[in-house]
Amino acid sequence: MSHTNCRFTTLATVLAALPFALAAQEARTLSPVTVSAAKIAPLGATETTDATLAPLRAASSDSARLLQNVPGLSLYGAGGVSSLPAIHGLADDRLRIQVDGMDLIAACPNHMNSALSYIDPTRVGSILVFAGITPVSIGGDSIGGTIAVKSAAPAFADSPEQVTGKGQLGTFYRSNGNASGLNLGATFIGQDVNVSYHGSRAESANYSAGSDFKSAGPGAVGGPWLAGNEVASSRFTSENQDIALALRHDNHLLQLGLGQQHIPFEGFPNQRMDMTGNDSTQINLRFNGRYAWGQLEARAFGQNTDHAMNMGPDRFSYGSLGMPMNSTAKTRGAALQAELLHSERDGFKAGIESYRYTLYDWWPQAGGVMGPATFWNVDYGTRDRVAIFGEWEAQWNAQLLSQFGIRHESVKTDAGPVQGYNAQAIWASDAAAFNAQSRQRTDQNLDLTALARYTDNATQTFEAGLARKTRSPNLYQRYPWSTQPMATLMNNFVGDGNGYVGNLNLKPEVAHTLSASGDWHDAGQ
N or C: which terminus of the chain has fewer CB atoms within 10 Å of its end residue's CB? Predict the structure, then answer.
């Protein structure tokens, strides 16, 4: 080996006032950890670059799988392109997950359309994983950490004579499941303009496990048949297209991205349903300007999602009538952040963010007890966030770097009245009880972070930090209302096979984390 790099970490984490958290965290690390340990980055940031990601892309069509070697991070295996990452046991909405700066939210009672499913692995240019204490400028409305996935940065020509274009074409085949895919791209590179297109398609039949299974049998409600070593309801087809425009002027960069996803089918072996359709469009506008006084960043984005679930063909062997479930969601976000270089020692960041999420979740009638009306699981659910933060970073000397931050968020949720499939008591009583309550809730959340790094010499670095992080419940934790097993089993957003009922009186989760770490490496890191 050309160098060695060893990290030893000790820490104690206390989770307090967690009315719906599952477990306390152990063994947090202060800095984000990525697949590559080639460098020590500023506090709270270590980046996994394209060179490290390249050999991982061919192994999976799921972008979350690019994180599988990150220490402290695990994955909930779900559909072929929709795994859910977990940092020290905290997953899904307990993490802040961004795709090119967009905070994307799963619009599904089973969280099948996860945030990382909206970017194909071939487009991922870099990943930041904040696996411990996340700076307030990066984290928010989360207690487990932050994952920020970015596509490749636009390239520009140095002079008009170097204006050029480039294209790429890739394909793959994996024997397990006869998985195959195709991706292509074309880019025009000018001196101050970059225009690109990327398209990809991936598909797979049911994959095979390493040993034989027996049939799940008719007693497994909604479960797929398992024939031989074939894992039923594991096939998928996914298509993604993206168009991007980047304009550069002096030290300013303006980027506009348009994305579209079409998934006609994705099986979920760990759920009672399959995804029978997911169509999403995204628009993302970003500005980055560098000035004598510092840096200004602004972004605005929107996402529209139409989602459908039902029992796929591998599950209909039970003679089920099926259970169609539909949802549609809109996400709108805007953020403004300024970084002021006050002196050689001090730097300040301040910002404001606003997000609005709207969800409709309804289950069309399907005959029998599932009719004659539409079942409304969440009707006009809203979750609005407004956040403001400030951060101070100081380089006291060549060895000591510190960072302090404070963040306040106001989170407001609400939902409209609901109804069951029919007027029978099993639906009517629960619906009437829910509709009679005031459903609006507002949380005032406070985050605090303090971090420090001491670089003893070229081969030793030590870090310590303390944080208070807060997260409000999502819509599926507050508003699903039916206590009947058939309905509760369909609200299984953690993929554990259990059923869930919402609780209007849930309070925000608060996590307190104390962390210390040491990093020993050679002079070349």
Answer: N
Q: What is the number of alpha carbons within 13 Å of residue 84 lying toward its C-beta?
A: 25
What is the pairing mode between strands 509-521 and 47-48? unpaired
User: In sequence order, which ranges of 159-283 are alpha helices (DSSP H)?
Assistant: none
Mind listing the pLDDT tens digit for each residue in 351-378? 999 999 999 999 999 887 888 999 999 9
Chain position carrying tokens 């997950």: 97
List CB contacts of 329: < 8 A, sequence separation 6 or more. Answer: 105, 107, 303, 304, 305, 307, 357, 358, 359, 360
390: tokens are 């400030």
Cis peptide before 372 (omega within 30 of 0): yes
- Phi/psi of residue 215, each to 5°? -60, 140
CB 334 within 8 A of CB 374: no
CA gyration radius, the chain: 24
Spatial distance between the Cα atoms of 188 and 354, rounded to a whole number of angstroms: 34
Six-digit token string for 28: 């947090």
Identity of the residue numbered 208: S
Gap between the Cα atoms of 28 and 196, Å rounded: 39
Residue with tokens 């809203």: 382
User: Angle CA(474)–CA(479)–CA(484) in degrees, nearest 5?
Assistant: 125
Instruction: Report the SS3 class of residue 176.
Output: coil
Contact 147, 75 (CB under 8 A): no
- In the 8-state DSSP scheme, what is residue 122? G
Query: Contact at 8 Å (CB) between 325 and 109?
Result: yes
Residues 6+ away with beta carbon under 8 Å from 447: 136, 139, 140, 389, 405, 406, 407, 408, 409, 467, 468, 469, 470
Q: Under DSSP, is residue 428 helix (H, G, I), strand (E, B) or coil?
A: helix
Phi-psi region of 141 (alpha: psi -120 to 50; beta: other; left: phi over 0): left
pTM over 0.90: no
Instruction: Answer yes or no: are the C-beta atoms of 402 and 396 closer than 8 Å.
Output: yes
Contacts of 130 (CB under 8 A, 6+ apart): 32, 44, 45, 138, 139, 145, 146, 147, 148
Which residue matches tokens 């499939």?
Answer: 421
Q: Between 453 and 258, where is the model more confident?
A: 258
Helix (H) or strand (E) holding 522: none
- pLDDT of 3 reads 36
Q: CA angle 332-84-275, nearest 5°?
A: 75
